[in-house]
Amino acid sequence: MSRRRISAFVAAIVLGTAAPVLLPASGASAAACSSYPSWVAGKSYVTGNVVRYTDGKAYIAEHDNPGYDPIISTWYWEPYACDNGPTNPSGFVVSEAQFNQMFPGRNSFYTYSGLKAAMSAYPAFANTGSDTVKRQEAAAFLANVNHETGGLVHIVEQNTANYPHYCDWGQPYGCPAGQSAYYGRGPIQLSWNFNYKAAGDALGIDLLNNPWLVQNDAAVAWKTGLWYWNTQTGPGSMTSHNAMVNSAGFGQTIRSINGSVECDGKNPAQVQSRVDSYQRFVQILGTTAGNNLYC
């Protein structure tokens, strides 16, 4: 189990200035699409709206438009497979268009292609269980990532005063990259020398000696996020992956990532922020949020 120290700078973490406390597709059918409103010519639509066209098939608005015809105005509309979300030949339940919709202000470092490349390290991620579970897990991961990085804006921890805290000299391998080298980086803000060591060992990358790879290589950054998501329980009792595929609920992913600071009523605003993102993302993916959203 990875671990993180809880110290006097927890207040900075709560304010979002420090890394979180971590412990050492198929075609649409008319029946499936019946729940979506019928497309109306001349009615204004915003990005993310899903409509049922006159042929019974569904389309999702890729751009705001004043009611253009989905068949004719293909720049504004994309076919939407109601059982599996938008048709996506990549095999990932989140299309690039949906990814961009989730993170409209993201840093260009956090690429969709980087995420797709990282998924090869953990093939069970968003690929286990029913199509609903797959979409829920993808939404849950991205919702937590959204919270940790301010909408995929921040690559590194913003409060540089915290950087020297993340070296545990009690570890036998020490801090070969330097006292202040193991600050929060990447989509789940990996921090502490022991977490860089554990993640690097698991991924076959020397992150202990070269932690800067996490802020310089998008695929490596995403892999560290998926490493934590799929293998670490943190302050929780299960991995975030297991929480989603075994129906424990989104709330347990919060507990595994930052439960010691946020759960059990310690910081309800931070928990609500994560839940809000999750509910928005499952809507984008055309599925439901499930139960047990809070921790």
How does this model look, in words?
It is a single chain. With 295 residues, the protein is mostly helical. It folds into two domains: 1-25 and 90-295, Lysozyme; 27-83, Carbohydrate-binding module superfamily 5/12 (Seminal Fluid Protein  PDC-109 (Domain B)), CATH 2.10.10.20. Helices cover 35% and strands 5% of the residues. It is built from ten helices and four strands. It has helices at 10-14, 96-102, 112-118, 131-149, 193-203, 213-216, 218-231, 240-245, 250-262, 268-284; strands at residues 50-52, 58-61, 77-81, 85-86. A four-stranded antiparallel sheet has the order 1-2-3-4, with no helix packed on it. A hairpin with a 3-residue loop joins strand 3 (77-81) and strand 4. Helix 9 (250-262) runs antiparallel to helix 10 (268-284). It is elongated. Disulfide bonds join 167-175, 263-295. InterPro entries: CBM5/12 (IPR003610), Glyco_hydro_19 (IPR016283), Glyco_hydro_19_cat (IPR000726), Lysozyme-like_dom_sf (IPR023346).
Count of helix runs: 10
CATH topology of the largest domain: Lysozyme
Class of secondary structure makeup? mainly alpha
Any idea of the CATH class of the largest domain?
Answer: Mainly Alpha
Main sheet strand line-up? 1-2-3-4
What is the overall pLDDT average? 85
Distance between the termini: 20 Å
Shape: elongated
Q: What would CATH call the architecture of the largest domain?
A: Orthogonal Bundle
Query: How many structural domains can be distinguished in the coordinates?
Result: 2
Overall radius of gyration: 20 Å
Largest sheet composition: 4 strands, antiparallel
The arrangement of helices and strands along the chain is HEEEEHHHHHHHHH
| Secondary structure tally: strands | 4
